[in-house]
Amino acid sequence: MAMAVTPSISLQQITGLVLAGGRGARMGHVDKGLQLFRGKPLAAHVIERLAGQTGTLAINANRHQSDYAAFNLPVWPDLLPDFPGPLAGLHSGLTHCATDYLAAAPCDSPLLPMDLVAKLAAALSLQQADAAIAVTGRAGQTDLQRHPVFCLLRKTLLPSLTGFLQEDGRKMERWFAGIHTVEVHFDDETAFCNINTLQELRQLESE
Ligand SMILES: Nc1nc2c(ncn2[C@@H]2O[C@H](COP(=O)(O)OP(=O)(O)OP(=O)(O)O)[C@@H](O)[C@H]2O)c(=O)[nH]1
Ligand SMILES: [Mg+2]
């Protein structure tokens, strides 16, 4: 009997996207990705961690675009008005990327796993899924946490996402529930810590 062969995904087929397109309302409407954490902008931490995990990188930002351009990466704004949420960033990424896959991570999680993309890609490929998202905690337990802003998407999902957004869908979880998504478990919960307020920024900085 012939063995089923699952083609694996190479790094060169993946564009990494730093999601920095939000309003930062809980931080006083500052541009979160540009706030300093341990002496460097939050976005710089994410760029450094993602570099090497994907073939190319880009930034999704809607404000201070010249500041983001200083990272020497393409800056892709949302194509939809009024800050409809992170899905708008994924929509921009899938529209612009020239690769078969897009891996996204938010600008406000400076400790993201160094094996994020490799693990998402391995699971997506093995399950022949269209999307992979990160999960922490133990399956079946109440502390299971889904982290859909840390995701890997096939570029072929663009029409699905466009349709979802056109119908005013904003909830990431709802879009992922309607497509073939695989959940990928990560042991290190702290790698996904996410900074929403200035207090959280200072707190994590001092840890
Ligand atoms: N492109 C895009 N990204 C967004 C939008 N809203 C949030 N994000 C991104 O989604 C990720 C998680 O969002 P939040 O933690 O809520 O960040 P935020 O929306 O800037 O902050 P709050 O305004 O305080 O909710 C971050 O990477 C944000 O940059 C949006 O309207 N467009
Ligand atoms: Mg928000």
From TrEMBL:
Binding site for Mg(2+): D108
Keyword terms, alphabetized: Cytoplasm, GTP-binding, Magnesium, Metal-binding, Molybdenum cofactor biosynthesis, Nucleotide-binding, Transferase
Listed SUPFAM superfamilies: Nucleotide-diphospho-sugar transferases (SSF53448)
InterPro entries recorded: MobA-like_NTP_Trfase, Molybde_CF_guanTrfase, Nucleotide-diphossugar_trans
EC nos: 2.7.7.77
Domain of life: Bacteria
Pfam families to which the protein is assigned, alphabetical: NTP_transf_3 (PF12804)
Keyword Ion transport tagged: no
Record remark on domains: The N-terminal domain determines nucleotide recognition and specific binding, while the C-terminal domain determines the specific binding to the target protein.
Role played: Transfers a GMP moiety from GTP to Mo-molybdopterin (Mo-MPT) cofactor (Moco or molybdenum cofactor) to form Mo-molybdopterin guanine dinucleotide (Mo-MGD) cofactor.
Quaternary state and interactors: Monomer.
Family designation: Belongs to the MobA family.
Protein name: Molybdenum cofactor guanylyltransferase
Organism: Herbaspirillum hiltneri N3
Gene this protein is translated from: mobA
